[in-house]
TrEMBL record:
Transmembrane segments: none
Entries under Pfam families matching the protein: Aldedh
Record key words, sorted: NAD, Oxidoreductase
Designated name of the protein: Aldehyde dehydrogenase
Taxonomy of the source species: Bacteria, Pseudomonadati, Bacteroidota, Cytophagia, Cytophagales
Keyword check for NADP: no
Domain of life: Bacteria
Annotated Aldehyde dehydrogenase domain residues: 5-441
Family, similarity comment: Belongs to the aldehyde dehydrogenase family.
Oxidoreductase found in the keyword field: yes
Length: 447
């Protein structure tokens, strides 16, 4: 048993109280002090790059070629340390005459939220824990992290990396599952950063309400890729296939389903099929492959397999893929045609290597289709026609969008990242992540 897992409630309360006291000190920390801490963290991340590859492979055979999760963490640290001093500066604003005008001083200062809780997922366990941690620390908070129990090797490594850099009263990792998460949610955290499914997200928000903790909710949903007739089909198919089957389809911001015009569907499907078979082979990568990740565990495998079987039993046709193996939690990259929008596969987030292709008559129909469903985390448009692409963006709502690619917005530290409605609340990364972990406090000094 891990030391953390045997922590009694009393010990946890002790860590929490020590973090509360430390948070009061860190509140006064300078940009230079925070930068020094982040640079030490960066060194530990760099020293563990190979260990990250190994842990991710042990967890779900994530191939080394797809396991560069530390890259974005390092880019984030570099970006934040370059800008933090400027971001932390109080912002001077004018004062109305009836409040003293120029004789008064009005400013907005940024304060850390205080003691934060992270509940993080398994699909990019290192990236989705350590990248937001950069924002949290830059803003001067303390934090208790509970990584996912479904990727135990990665969670253990996260704990080791953290313990090599931070004392417990600054950052503390507590491994465990939903029971440990519930225990943590009883504590009066100031901010809760949750990444995971929407169902559990609602449980977390209810618990946050007991203490009026602010929340960042990074959730999931069904992200469409809309193919306009003007798109470069070969280019679009290449990008969609790569981003979809990366990590075995277990990416919250990847394409969940495709919408293409009914007149051009066969042509686009031919491009997708050709690309999949070129990248993974006509029979798929195979259960021996070390270049293709697996579904994270048998429960998730069975869930995705059920979606596939149900679709095939109810009129969907298999274009390529569909190979499964129960022992290996393996499903080959799978392309589906003739998918009825009322099937289960179109009702829940797939989060696996199944790619349904649906059709529209006009671009307006595609827009209506998206607007009749929950607001997605990502919406992607492939088009060479700027007017058409702009029309799709301005007529829909999504957490983020990319024109002529999928999910690349996540890679930019200049862009805010997050969901909207059912796909999330709050914004992360770069300046926006720093702000999400800060309180804006107005200070008015009167004569
Ligand atoms: P999950 O909801 O099962 O688990 C996420 C975290 O919540 C884990 O740490 C888990 O231990 C904890 N948890 C589980 N049950 C809990 C409970 N009853 N009370 C409190 N905490 C609990 O999510 P997951 O399966 O790990 O991740 C997959 C989902 O996450 C997908 O829907 C995906 O789209 C979404 N996701 C979103 C983003 C994003 O940035 N928006 C990123 C990755 C994943």
């Amino acid at each position: 048993m891990m030391e953390t897992q045997t922590l009694s409630k009393v010990d946890l309360a002790d860590v929490f109280q020590r973090q509360q006291r430390k948070a009061l000190q860190l509140k006064k920390s300078t940009a230079q002090e925070r930068i020094a801490r982040l640079l030490k963290f960066k060194e530990a991340v760099i020293a563990n790059i190979d260990n990250v590859y190994e842990a991710l492979y042990k967890d779900y055979k994530k191939p080394k070629e797809e396991a560069f999760e530390t890259d974005s963490v390092i880019v984030e640290i570099d970006f934040v340390t370059d800008h933090l001093e400027k971001w932390m500066n109080p912002q001077a604003v004018p004062t109305p005459e009836d409040l003293g005008g120029e004789a008064s001083v009005s400013k907005i200062i940024l304060e850390p939220k205080g003691v934060c809780l992270f509940l993080t997922p398994w699909n990019y366990p290192v990236l989705l824990t350590l990248r937001p941690l950069v924002s949290c620390l830059a803003a001067g908070n303390t934090v208790i992290i509970k990584p996912s129990e479904l990727t135990p090797h990665s969670s253990k490594l996260i704990k080791e990396i953290i313990e090599s850099v931070f004392p417990k009263d600054e950052v503390f990792v507590m491994e465990g599952g939903a029971d440990v998460a519930s225990e943590l949610l009883d504590l009066p955290f100031n901010h809760i950063f949750y990444t995971g499914g929407t169902r559990v997200g609602k449980i977390v928000m209810k618990a946050a309400a007991n203490h009026m903790a602010s929340v960042t909710m990074e959730l999931g949903g069904k992200c469409p890729s809309i193919i306009d007739d003007s798109a470069d089909f070969a280019d679009a198919a290449g990008k969609i296939v790569w981003t979809k089957f990366f990590n075995c389809g277990q990416t919250c911001i990847t394409t969940d389903y495709i919408l293409v015009s009914e007149n051009r569907k066969d042509e686009f499907i031919a491009h997708l099929k050709g690309t999949i078979e070129h990248m993974y082979g006509v029979d798929g990568p195979g259960i021996e492959s070390s270049k293709y990740a697996r579904l994270v565990n048998n429960n998730h495998y069975q869930r995705v397999k059920r979606l596939l079987d149900d679709a095939l039993e109810n009129g969907a046709t298999l274009v390529t893929g569909g190979k499964t193996n129960d022992e290996e939690n393996y499903i080959s990259p799978t392309l589906l045609d003739n998918v009825d929008p009322d099937l289960a596969i179109m009702k829940e987030e797939i989060f696996g290597p199944l790619l349904p292709v649906l059709t529209y008559k006009t671009l307006d129909d595609a827009i209506d289709f998206v607007n009749q469903r929950e607001r997605p985390l990502g919406l992607y448009v492939y088009s060479k026609d700027k007017v058409a692409a702009d029309k799709v963006i301005s007529s829909t709502t999504a957490g983020g969008s990319v024109i002529n690619h999928t999910f690349m917005h996540y890679m930019s530290p200049y862009l805010p990242f997050g969901g909207v409605g059912n796909s999330g609340i709050g914004r992360g990364n770069g300046y926006f992540g720093f702000m999400d972990f800060s309180n804006q406090r107005p200070v008015l000094e009167m004569p």
